[in-house]
Write a structure and sequence with these properties.
Belongs to the enoyl-CoA hydratase/isomerase family. This is Enoyl-CoA hydratase/isomerase family protein. Pfam families: ECH_1. It comes from Billgrantia sulfidoxydans. This protein is α/β, with parallel strands linked by helices and 258 residues long. The protein folds into 2 domains: 197 residues, 2-enoyl-CoA Hydratase, Chain A, domain 1 (Alpha-Beta Complex); 52 residues. It is built from 11 helices and 10 strands. The chain is globular.
């Protein structure tokens, strides 16, 4: 059982909530280890279609690393170990076999921003902010977030955000492509998440896994030939699946109707 996470299965949707509202959901080493374990444990479950990662309360998605816990990390060896262990958590999120959505219930700051960009999509209300403000602590990104930001945005733009420790509101982040969707006026975050995930939940899980596998392989820099092989493999698996023929038969039968 995770001490700092709430894990809730809602049909084919898995919801993971960082539950440290009294600490603004700060990411201690214990929280990061739990994230790694939960996402690794659930990766093999074939029924999942979408994962929603969020935080408790309405102030912070994750207010960076837990400074009190991380203050114990002093030596080069300790810093290296901390970075590697935290990367295990964010890698487990980013490599999860179906889409993972960061639902920013509040600010995603520093390490919280790194966790957000480890997800495939980011959704937020207008009041949320996101920022890679590690430079204000005279450190660089710690857990792979800088590299992911450079993959998500044009390099000069990502470098600007990093070197200026810019804190963006949700609409500003959406305009540059950092946030995918902002809740509309009068719309709750939960309603926005439901609207965003509805088309995904209408897909078959094996189809979502195929698309996610292709995206991960592309991010890893595989060759065109390797990407073609992966795409073909998933096409064959989904083409010969009963779900495909059931959907195709429905269309064909509709066309035959007078």
């Amino acid at each position: 059982m995770a001490e700092h996470l709430l894990v809730d299965a809602q049909g084919p949707l898995l919801r993971v909530t960082i539950h440290r509202p009294e600490k603004r959901n700060a990411l201690s080493r214990a929280v990061l280890n739990e994230l790694a374990d939960v996402f690794t444990e659930h990766a093999a479950e074939p029924k999942w279609k979408v994962v929603v990662l969020t935080g408790a309360g309405d102030k912070s998605f994750a207010a960076g690393g837990d400074l009190r816990d991380l203050a114990q990390v002093r030596s080069e060896e300790q810093a290296t170990t901390m970075s590697h262990e935290a990367r295990r958590a964010l890698d487990a999120v980013s490599q999860f076999p179906v889409p993972v959505i960061a639902a920013l219930n509040g600010d995603a700051i520093g390490g919280g921003a790194e966790l957000a960009v480890a997800c495939d999509f980011i959704i937020a209300p207008p009041t949320s902010r996101i920022g890679f403000i590690q430079g204000k602590l005279n450190i660089t990104t710690a857990w792979g977030g800088g590299a992911r930001l450079l993959s998500r945005l044009p390099a000069p733009l990502a470098l600007r955000l990093l070197t200026r420790s810019e804190l963006l509101d949700a609409h500003a982040a959406q305009r540059i492509g950092l946030i995918d969707q902002v809740a509309e006026e009068g719309q709750t975050l939960e309603q926005c998440v439901e609207q965003f995930t509805k088309p995904m939940l209408a897909q078959a899980p094996q189809v979502l896994r195929g698309f996610k596998a292709l995206a991960l392989s592309h991010a890893d820099g595989l060759s065109k030939a390797e990407l073609a092989e992966i795409e073909t493999r998933h096409l064959v698996a989904t083409w010969t699946h009963d779900d495909h023929w059931e959907a195709a038969d429905k269309i064909l039968n509709t066309r035959k109707s007078p």
